[in-house]
Design a protein that fits this description.
By secondary structure, the chain is mainly α. The longest helix is centred in the middle third of the chain and has 19 residues. The chain has two domains: 87 residues, Helix-hairpin-Helix base-excision DNA repair enzymes (C-terminal) (Endonuclease Iii, domain 2); 102 residues, Endonuclease III, domain 1 (Orthogonal Bundle), CATH 1.10.340. The chain is elongated and about 55 Å long. The model has no long low-confidence stretch (mean pLDDT 95). The protein contains 13 helices and no strands.
């Protein structure tokens, strides 16, 4: 089966299984989304959602976060992975937003990725979810699924992103990003997964991959 045919069938199945795609990170504005996504690296969404209410209660926007010292931020998010580095980045990017953008989150990849702690994946999520600009943020879940489904042979998420953008229509990228994450978490885990029983892997994965992952 061609990759384009696989992509069409996968899109149909994901739409049936996950027709609704709520953003898993709690936030009330673009700034809070940016901070939550930044914190989600190497940390679960649930853990981020546990610490952000207290953080956003004292600093709901860039102006107030820039006035909050790093130690205070760290004290609130200390249970999040890489908390010391993230605390500094949150404080510093807030100061930059105030100084360069009047506290407003910019809506270009270049400007977002120039902020401390904001990589391409974080920028992609913000561009898609905050500004509805098509982007395909590839995390470890999506990287794994793309390989299992024979949509990409890439060794890194950057190439996987390029491969997925080639096979899925641009207008589908934003929703598919979340649908694939939801599917990975609910139906296609990294370990202990029987590809033969999976609603997508069962037909999309090659016999070689099934044999490799089962052994």
């Amino acid at each position: 089966m061609k990759r384009s045919e696989k992509a069409t069938r996968i899109t149909t199945i994901l739409e049936e299984l996950h027709p609704e795609t709520p953003i898993p990170l709690d936030h009330e504005n673009h700034f809070q989304l940016l901070i939550a996504v930044l914190m989600s690296a190497q940390t679960t969404d649930n853990k981020v959602n546990q610490v952000t209410p207290e953080l956003f209660a004292i600093a709901p926007d860039a102006e107030s976060m820039a006035k909050t010292d790093v130690a205070t931020i760290l004290g609130i998010i200390r249970e999040v992975g890489l908390a010391p580095t993230k605390s500094r980045n949150i404080h510093n990017l807030s100061k930059i937003l105030v100084a360069k953008f009047s506290g407003v989150v910019p809506n270009t990849f270049a400007e977002l990725e120039d902020l401390p702690g904001v990589g391409h994946k974080t920028a992609s999520v913000v561009m898609a979810q905050a500004f509805s600009i098509p982007a395909f943020a590839v995390d470890t879940h999506i990287h794994r699924l793309a390989a299992r489904w024979g949509l990409s042979k890439a060794k890194n998420v950057e190439q996987t992103e390029r491969d997925l953008k080639r096979v899925f229509p641009r207008e589908k990228w934003i929703k598919l990003h979340l649908q694939m994450i939801f599917f990975a978490r609910a139906s296609c885990p990294a370990r202990g997964h029987d590809l033969n029983l999976c609603p997508i892997c069962s037909w999309a994965a090659s016999a070689k991959r099934k044999s490799t992952e089962m052994n």
